[in-house]
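Email to the structure team, subject: Translation initiation factor IF-1 model.

Hi all, the expression group asked for a predicted structure before they design truncation constructs. Nothing fancy, just the tokens so they can compare against earlier work. One-line instruction: predict Translation initiation factor IF-1, return tokens.
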Amino acid sequence: MCAGRVFIYRKDRMAKEELIDMMGIVNEVLPDTRFRVTLDNGHQLIAYSAGKMKKNHIRILAGDRVSLELSPYDLTKGRINFRHLEGRGPATPRRR
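Reply from the structure team: attached below.
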């Protein structure tokens, strides 16, 4: 351990704030991988795709139904974490 540094491990840390899960429809694809989404309750917001969706190259188009997470502190921004496909069954895994 370095001299002069004291590490304190606390068990009584504050809990993370719970995210709000909502469903919506993508209205418009905006620049910088952002999307204008209308929630099921009629509220509109700007959302971005989650890192795992970017990593797996999942494309989001206007008209797609999506699940997103909202912070209770800012209800005008959200993170899209799942794209629902209507009329399709589950995808078969790719063979390598």
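The beta strands are 20-30, 34-39, 44-49, 65-71, 74-84. The domain at 20-84 is CATH 2.40.50.140 (OB fold (Dihydrolipoamide Acetyltransferase, E2P)). Ping us if the truncation boundaries need rechecking.
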